Amino acid sequence: MNRSRLSKSWRIVLLFVFSSSCAGDDFNSIRNLDSAGRSIICFGDSLTEGVGAPAAEDYPAQLSRKLNLSVINAGRRGDTTADALERLPRDVLGKDPRLVIVLLGGNDFLRRVPLAETRRNLFAIVDRIQKSGAMVALAGMKLGLFTDDYGSLTEETARQLGALYLPGVTKGIFSDAKLKSDAIHPNAAGYRLIAARVAEKIKPLLEEADRRLGRSAGA
Q1: Mind listing the pLDDT tens digit for each residue in 184-193?
Q2: What angle do CA 30, 131, 67 make, to 5 degrees?
Q3: Contact, 81 vs 143, CB < 8 A?
Q4: Largest Cα–Cα distance of the chain, in whole Å?
């Protein structure tokens, strides 16, 4: 075998080994990949409830169709992280969660809740969900006009606690009139974009979790 063909063969082998070794590596830090729960729950405020969109066009409903799995909408308009923490046992922990997708912080920002308080509440929400045995995905979004303290808070919390971070799920939506129903809520098309961005990250997580559990996806 000449040197050129040998070099090409080694590149193929190395690419295969690298790809194999990296498969699922992104999820090694995610807690509760072996979760025994059954429910996928979207937990949040009006952006999860679906304010501004017709029935069944909220992002959890559209996410359900993209994943071909049942998804529970546990969004409630107006919720701060403190409000969400208060109803967590009833609306999330009591529903046998496998994966909880948390999208919160917008109302804390609008009401000028101190960042430290939001951080404590978000940390407690993720920690309690994980202690119930479920995986957590934290959705990040840019809230400030010039700074993004809340976005970095979400990313830091995800990293500290072993949750999956979903960056920029609302990116570009609130600056595009075609994607929003008012100044702070998407329309059906905007929620469709959120669902697509969430699905892009969630689907491989669920597939990896199923693989490790030795079951077919969605079983």
Answers
A1: 999 999 999 9
A2: 50
A3: no
A4: 70
122 contacts: CB under 8 Å, gap ≥ 6: 81, 102, 104, 105, 138, 153, 154, 157
CATH of domain 31-213: 3.40.50.1110
pLDDT digits (tens, 9 = 90+) for 103-137: 999 999 999 999 999 999 999 999 999 999 999 99
Cβ atoms of 49 and 76 closer than 8 Å: yes
Domain map (residue ranges) of the chain: 1-30, 31-213
